Amino acid sequence: MNKLITKSRFILVMGMLLVCALTAPAIARNTTDTECGACFGTMPPEITEIQTTGLKEASSYSGEVEEVVIWEDDFNTYPFGRRWHIWYPIGGMGWDKGSVYLPYTCHDDEASPKRIYAQTMYHSFSNNPFYGYYDPKLKYKFKSYSDDGDDAGIDVGFCYEQDGDWYGTSKLYHSPNEYPRWTTKSLDIGDYWTDLGWSDEYRVWVYEDADYSDFPHEGYAPSEVNGHIHITDIKLIGTPNKPPYKPSNPSPADGAGDASVGMELSWTGGDPNGDGTVKYNVYWGTSQSSMRLIFQNISDTYFIGSFDLYKTYYWKVVARDEFGLTTESDTWTFCRYGSRLTIDGPTDGATPAIHKYDDGTSVASTL
Prior knowledge:
Elements: E1 4-5, H1 12-15, E2 19-21, H2 33-40, E3 47-48, E4 50-51, E5 68-73, E6 85-86, E7 94-95, E8 100-102, E9 104-107, E10 114-125, E11 133-146, E12 153-162, E13 165-174, E14 179-188, E15 202-209, E16 227-240, E17 248-251, E18 262-268, E19 279-285, E20 292-298, E21 302-306, E22 311-320, E23 326-328, E24 332-336, E25 352-356, E26 362-366
Parallel strand pairs: 3-13
Antiparallel strand pairs: 1-4, 2-10, 5-16, 6-10, 7-8, 8-16, 9-10, 10-15, 11-14, 11-16, 12-13, 12-15, 17-18, 18-21, 19-20, 19-22, 22-23, 22-24, 25-26
């Protein structure tokens, strides 16, 4: 596979700028990154497009398993500190016991008010929350509108860190598109997250901007902020990986006694996730305790066997999916007999003598 997954306007440097509305004239001018870093801390790294060349891609989901909520936050309790982090802690974001919003006055002082109108918050995971889930999505509810139809923007995404760089995907909504009522959106993350597990940190992040018309911001307080942003009920959703179906319906049937010299043995398998990645290990022996592995990681649900005369055979199949989940069949048996006895009726008054042959034929002669 050689595929490039692009981001949805995913430049977090511009999205993560915190701009405080301070009356102090010292920042009422253009500022450099160095000066901004001195005020607000180290500038955040840019999040780039995801390069998936050589990355294993999980098969598209087409199975029977329903999607579930992997993780969620409804913001009914104060979110900041342990659950959510502010990119520039010197600022903040408003919380109204149900959502996080901007603009927000974090220091209500007539002489020196501090009003936040652009900020980023994020929630971190030490392991990939989407690992083992198909069709992953980021779902959330938000409001984004402005008094003048020009000053509201919100960007929501998911990313991971590798070697100091951040990679991910997001979706940006901004004026003049207005969402004055609660609106639910769903961002398809992509099935390449399903078995991605090499990063030390994964993040859900939200950038809110109540002065989007002045984007990108230059670090000074706007004369007027007209935008209003709220977000709540953020969820990670996916379809969980389930173990393969239990191998069943063996052929020959369990306990059969009419196996031929060389015949096909088969079974029914498959995966409830419908991704077609199940492999099978076949075990075989002349007693239940002597079964040994004869085929490993095969994709077919059949094989051709050769069987000795007058023996009972034991066999079973273990199904394994791409995430290592296994399901084992029952142990099945069948026999191969060396001959088939048939009697041809004798002539009247004669005593038949029965002769048997290994090819299954017989002949009757009279004495």
